[in-house]
Amino acid sequence: MKRGLFITFEGIDGAGKSTHVAWSADFLRARGITLTLTREPGGTVLGEELRELLLATQAPVHAETEALLMFSARRQHLEEVIRPALARGGCVLCDRFTDASFAYQGGGRGVEKRKLAVLEDWVHPDLQPDLTVLFDVSAEVGQARVARIKSPDRFERENAEFFVRVRDAYLERMKESPHRFVRMDGTKPIPDVQAELAQKLTLILSKWKT
Ligand code: TYD
Description:
The protein has a single domain, classed as Rossmann fold (3-Layer(aba) Sandwich), CATH 3.40.50. It is of the alpha/beta class. The protein has a 5-stranded parallel β-sheet, with helices on both faces. It has 8 helices and 5 strands; from the N terminus they run E-H-E-H-H-E-H-H-E-H-H-E-H. The chain is globular and about 50 Å long. Helix content is 56%, strand content 13%. Helix 2 (45-56) runs antiparallel to helix 3 (63-87). Bound molecules: thymidine-5'-diphosphate (TYD). Thymidine-5'-diphosphate is lined by residues 13, 18, 40-41, 70, 95-96, 100-101, 104-105, 155.
């Protein structure tokens, strides 16, 4: 059987990713795709416990500790959810993956890219998403949207400079792997973004099926 299809969604906080993940899941299911919808950090019992810790702890967290915990959650996620679903030939739609570690821990927190690349190679040497949709907005736009959240998490509380670095790191990652990235302008009206998403998803589905 053919390997499944691995799609990831990325973007800085406030880029509108969550809205589009839900919409895309409905879009894919409506086309008869067997879909596993999941997220990082999280997606497994252990991963969700690590997520809680990563997003809510009051304790000091070294940037490299944070990176290691993200990859720990990811290792379990690949084992329990992502790889089995792909092996069954289904489609996995994952809300954030390793690009987020390069963007947030690398760009945002300053963890050396070289070290993140070691972790990436350790945890998934043989697997990359088939399609990564990057919802792109400026740090200011993202911050303005996040400012409306009542109880922001550890990342959402970061300042504008942090998100400028996160965004730049995402764009750099996109330049390094242009074949799998698609950039969406997250400032466009939702229906416009959805129309573009429908096109991109239809294209990847047709490539996958042939
Ligand atoms: P997010 O995906 O924005 O979920 P929600 O929409 O529920 O707020 O939250 C996850 C946070 O985790 C986000 O701020 C980015 C951060 N993150 C990292 O810093 N590194 C990673 O590798 C991943 C997967 C997420």
